[in-house]
Write a structure and sequence with these properties.
Radius of gyration: 12 Å
Helix content: 55-70%
Structural class: mainly alpha
Largest sheet: none
Number of helices: 2
Order of helices and strands: HH
């Protein structure tokens, strides 16, 4: 699956939480956000496309 660049705005508080989680887990900010999106859509029974 090819990854595309997406830009969005986020509150500084959320960004701090994302960054601290990424640092603790040794992963990138993008990986944190991807994992959160996967969990969100899995929890809401949203089928994956492509």
């Amino acid at each position: 699956m090819a990854l595309r660049i997406v830009t969005f705005k986020v509150d500084e508080t959320f960004l701090d939480l994302i960054d601290s989680y990424a640092l603790r887990k040794g992963i990138s900010r993008s990986q944190v956000i991807r994992q959160a999106l996967i969990r969100f859509f899995s929890k809401n029974n949203t089928p994956r496309t492509k």
